[in-house]
Every structure is written in structure tokens, then in C-alpha cells.
Design brief:
Blueprint (H helix, E strand, L loop, with lengths): L1 H11 L7 E6 L2 E6 L4 E4 L10 E5 L9 E9 L5 H15 L4 E4 L9 E7 L5 E8 L3 E9 L2 H6 L1 H9 L2 E4 L6
Antiparallel strand pairs: 1-2, 2-10, 3-4, 4-5, 5-9, 6-7, 7-8, 8-9
Length: 173
């Protein structure tokens, strides 16, 4: 009997052997799956208000040609539609030649939306918004070279797919 239990445990360990990064802040907590070849860093983007920054092995947050990051914001007004409209307006103000399109990152849902913001004089960004009960999570992949960013889309899709909202009930003493 003991042998059977040990065998079951040994067979199950690889199922749970992946690493997650758990990120928490004032009134939020989420996890992201470890991405092969990418560093998850909660320090480098902190001054920019970024909850977790990701960049490829061998680069840094400052010099990576493509970065990804996750932010959490309060859900206000009508939630997702209001935030997407607000961010779209900000992108248009910052870049008069911007091209904005919907991105096929997630299955269609009323609680999520993905967009591509393509500014020829600045960054090419893929942004996914995930609406929670009282927060909206913003997952971004950004770089100056459109071709390089598009080549990294599989990693970004893994980031979005591996994102797990944990709770809005985080209290610090």
C-alpha cells in the first residue's frame, strides 16, 4: 500500500513542478506561470508603477528589445469598456499616426479584450485587459520593432494564458 501511495505521489510531482510568480499589492494578488527563457522581475519596473516586469534571459528591463509587464488598476465606471476607451484616447494623443486593432489573444469574452497599438515613431504594443470583480488587469508586450514583438507573440500568449487572478482581499499590517 505504501508503495502505491509513493508511486502516485511520484507520478503527480511533475504535474505541479512548474514555477509560478505570485505578485501582490494593495488589494490584489495574482500569479503568472514561469515562461521559459524569460525573467519575472518585481523590482525593475516598480518606479514606473509596474507590478511585474518580464524580459528575456540575457537582457535587462532597461535594454531588452521586447518586454512584457502586468499592472492592476481599479475597476471604475463601466469597467472594461471605459478603461479601453481611456487608454485608446491616451495612445491617440501620444501618437497621431497610431494604428489600433483588435488582437486575437484570448477566446472572446465580455470580461476580456486585447488590442494592438502600433505607433511607427514609438512602440508596438499588444495589450490584454482582464476584468475582475473590482479590478482590471493589464498585460502588455511592448517593443520598438514590430517584427521582433510579433515574433514573441507565442510567449505573450503563454503569459496571458498562465495568468491567474487570486484575490482582491490582500491586507498589510
Amino acid at each position: 500500500m505504501r508503495f502505491i501511495i509513493m508511486l502516485i505521489v511520484m507520478l503527480m510531482v511533475p504535474m505541479f513542478a512548474h514555477a509560478d510568480t505570485i505578485v501582490y499589492g494593495k488589494d490584489f494578488s495574482f500569479s503568472i506561470k514561469e515562461l521559459k527563457g524569460w525573467i519575472s522581475d518585481i523590482e525593475s519596473g516598480r518606479e514606473q508603477g509596474i507590478n511585474v516586469a518580464l524580459y528575456e534571459d540575457g537582457t535587462t528591463w532597461a535594454d531588452a528589445p521586447v518586454v512584457m509587464y502586468v499592472n492592476v488598476t481599479e475597476r471604475k465606471g463601466n469597467g472594461l469598456p471605459d478603461l479601453v476607451s481611456y487608454e485608446t484616447a491616451n495612445f491617440k494623443r501620444a501618437c497621431s499616426e497610431i494604428k489600433i486593432s483588435k488582437a486575437d489573444i484570448l477566446p472572446k469574452s465580455g470580461r476580456s479584450e486585447s488590442r494592438i497599438f502600433d505607433c511607427p515613431t514609438n512602440n508596438y504594443e499588444v495589450v490584454t485587459y482582464l476584468e475582475q470583480k473590482d479590478k482590471i488587469c493589464i498585460l502588455v508586450m511592448s517593443g520598438r520593432n514590430r517584427n521582433i514583438v510579433e515574433a514573441k507573440l507565442p510567449a505573450y500568449k503563454e503569459l496571458v494564458k498562465g495568468f491567474t487572478w487570486l484575490t482582491s482581499n490582500v491586507k498589510f499590517n
